[in-house]
Design brief:
The chain is built from eleven helices and ten strands. Helix 5 crosses helix 6, helix 7 packs across helix 11 and helix 10 packs across helix 11. Strands 1, 2, 3, 5 and 8 form a five-stranded mixed β-sheet that branches. Strands 4-10-9 form a three-stranded mixed β-sheet, with no helix packed on it. It has a two-stranded antiparallel ribbon with strand order 6-7. With about 325 residues, it is α+β, with helices and mostly antiparallel strands. The protein folds into two domains: about 100 residues, Immunoglobulin-like (Sandwich); about 180 residues, no CATH class.
Length: about 325
Amino acid sequence: MKRNLFASLILLLILVALPALIFGARHAQGSRDGIRVVEIRATVPDAGGFVPDRLTLIAGEKVILRFTAPDVVHGLIIPELGVNIAEIYPGKPVEVTVQPENPGRYEFACTRWCGLDHWRMRGVIEVIDPGGAVVVPTVEKPLFEELGIDIDAMRHAPASLPSSPPSVQRGYEIAPDSSLPDWLADPHARRTRSPANAFEELRNLPENKELADDALWDLVAWTWVQEAAPEALAKAQELYARDCAACHGETGRGDGVAGRNLPGMAKMDPTMPSGPADFTDAAQMLSAPDALLHGKLLRGGMGTGMPEFGSLYTDEQLWAMVSYLRTFHFTK
């Protein structure tokens, strides 16, 4: 008799109490005017980062996200929901209301350099349809995959390198007196080739035989950045300062304090220097097509310590960032 009573109590606990606990945990943060409030704690990555770093919402559900930062100043961006919080100060909670209508995954990340592993402060909001399924939107295949580029493969230095950083202005001045292949005028085609490819093709044109090698490199510099919109470059510069400078350095030399202990390309080849890429390194950058740089930003560097930015940047911002990176080895 007692055994049956005990078994009944256990069954009751499973069927009633446990779901109640789960429901209570989901709503433990409370609600305000019928809107669920979710507390998210932001700490430096070594102390946990975002807690929780994964949320599940139902499409159309309105939720108040309440962010607190007990240690240092953090920031937050949820690009696809239009959320951009510049500062979350310790002791000053910040709230934002979101209501994602479409199922899918919405990435969020810290936007303030809060420590050496700042780039690890990321999370995801999974929005499900009422039936409970997460819908992953289809995306176009990135250019580097279309071209079959192995973005992790080691690149060889070009046969010819400029004696000094190529100048966009000097290239502009000599452009009318030079001969350019048709593909250099096509932005899409230009993305599939490296500046070193362009130099070799220009060098082999009989019409350019009177031009010195450095003059041809100037011409390459001009063709590569001439169509980059100033406002797009300005935005990319802001993003670089926010997301990249801590590792790659303000001048792109790979000397940022946060990148000192990262393996970098040494993860792929022990003969390569450790740490972040040096964007002023002509041998590496001039041999890299724009499609490769775009792929690195989109997917990240596998094992190198570089995170992906495909979930945080629009495709336009990714390409603008590629153009901005070119300014570290092409001068005005």
